[in-house]
Amino acid sequence: MRISLSFLLLPVAASGFFFAQPMAIKQGLVQVTDSQKTTPLTIKLDVGITDDARLNIQGLMLELSSKEANYEHPKMPGADGPHPQLSSGVRTLNILKEGSFVDMNGQKTVKTLNGCWEMVWKQNASAGSLICGFDIPEEYSRNDASLDAGRLYLSFPIWTKIGLKEAQEQKEFVMSRTKELMNEKNEHMAKYQADHNPLMKALHYRNAVAAVEKNSFLDLKSVDMVPSSDDIIPLQDDLLLTTKGLVFSKDGSFHRGRHLLLGAAYAGPVEMRP
Question: Model pTM?
Fold first, then answer.
């Protein structure tokens, strides 16, 4: 089973008409990318949506370089998408070690070709994305989970230190507030069940509904994506990478169609031996 994702851009209303909101790249992103030192990462892929059909690819080691990717490589969501001005530009990615998985016939190596990467970050957004792209020359499968031949992408959220701190503080506030509101709802529902006065029952029920409604206005989906400090690794002094990201594929142009969510990706530093 796979999930198709579509990304929608919402217009901004002004004077009764709708105009597309202008987008600009985060200030200094290109310079930050230019200064990125050669960075090795270990990657684990967990492909599959259901628990009983998974393809776990481990041992992939890649290296990010600030050099421009002046070779044939997959089209990228930022540089080749509807808003190329938000991309840092496509950079070189080297495969230090291919990943592999184990099936009934033993260990199989997953070939990845033409690797590259970019950062995409909109001005005033709290987080951006580091996206890696590869060509997969053949299909790999284990039970009912499969990785089709074609273009494969990994996407990880990236943060500045201040941006992450502010997002974590907002997450703490939202989670505390939602706990308060759910406790309030439960208290009113308990009173609703216990009270025999029809008018009081209606009052308690209305108060419970009001608490649920207030909770619906909290941005729970966004704060859920904010990582803890244990779930990040540094790429630079003021550039942090969330260690959990997404694996997706794409056919055709990034200007139309859907991204196909395949599973999760996990990044970590390469342990340097003495």
Answer: 0.83
